[in-house]
Design brief:
- The protein is of the alpha+beta class.
- The protein contains 4 helices and 8 strands, in the order H-H-E-E-E-E-H-E-E-E-E-H.
- Helix 1 crosses helix 2.
């Protein structure tokens, strides 16, 4: 299987540094009101990255797209010269918060997307702190989802299931990790997750059978 040169060489570490330097050198882009809003900060960072991402990639980039619907899988997408296709999910979190569990993508979407070995689902995770209206990005992870250890991921019960970072303050990465191994682990996680969901659903069914029985016994 051909592998992406971007993520199986040190090039992605250079991208992480460029992204951090870009955001930290940018003029203050938040007001006193918006700086306290994680959503506003995330939207502003995404906008800055969208405007500059093709330039950051430089000669690595074949094509780059930044216009997507709100519920799309990607915030940014690009191809490289080897015709690998990358979609980028941008996740931001404020480092002085206690807990953050962002959704990354649907388990069903990812399983279909990774049927093509030339597709990569990338997570661009940025941790920041705020001083006044100044946003200071302290760390950047720009890696394929298969570099995330399952020890820091979890599954949320929405639709088919959502892959989530269990806690953004505790990220465990395995650079260069085998996609085949990660996907087999992914399947094991889901094959353990669904039977538990069936048990939960059965309890809910029994609950509403009981409620229905109670209501049938009432007078109008």
């Amino acid at each position: 299987m051909q592998k992406s040169q971007l993520f199986h060489t040190p090039q992605y570490k250079s991208m992480e540094q460029k992204i951090r330097e870009l955001l930290n050198s940018h003029k203050d882009f938040m007001s006193e009101t918006t700086a306290s809003s994680p959503r506003a900060v995330g939207d502003a960072i995404q906008s800055i990255l969208a405007d500059n991402f093709e330039h950051l990639l430089g000669e690595l980039c074949g094509t780059c797209t930044t216009q997507f619907a709100r519920r799309a899988m990607a915030d940014i997408a690009f191809t490289d010269k080897d015709e690998f296709y990358y979609v980028v999910d941008i996740e931001t979190h404020r480092l002085d918060t206690q807990f953050n569990m962002p959704n990354l993508t649907s388990v069903e979407r990812l399983s279909r997307f990774y049927e093509d070995d030339k597709n990569y689902f990338l997570v661009l995770n940025l941790g920041y702190k705020i001083v006044g209206t100044k946003i200071g990005v302290e760390h950047v992870n720009f890696v394929p989802i298969e570099f995330f250890s399952w020890n820091c991921l979890t599954i949320g019960a929405l639709g088919w299931g959502q892959i989530q970072i269990a806690n953004s303050n505790r990220i465990i990465l395995n650079p260069g990790y085998s996609r085949k191994k990660w996907m087999l682990e992914f399947c094991d996680v889901m094959l353990e997750f669904y039977p538990k969901e069936i048990t939960k659903i059965d309890k809910r069914i029994q609950h509403f059978k009981k409620i229905k029985k109670q209501w049938k016994s009432k007078t109008e």
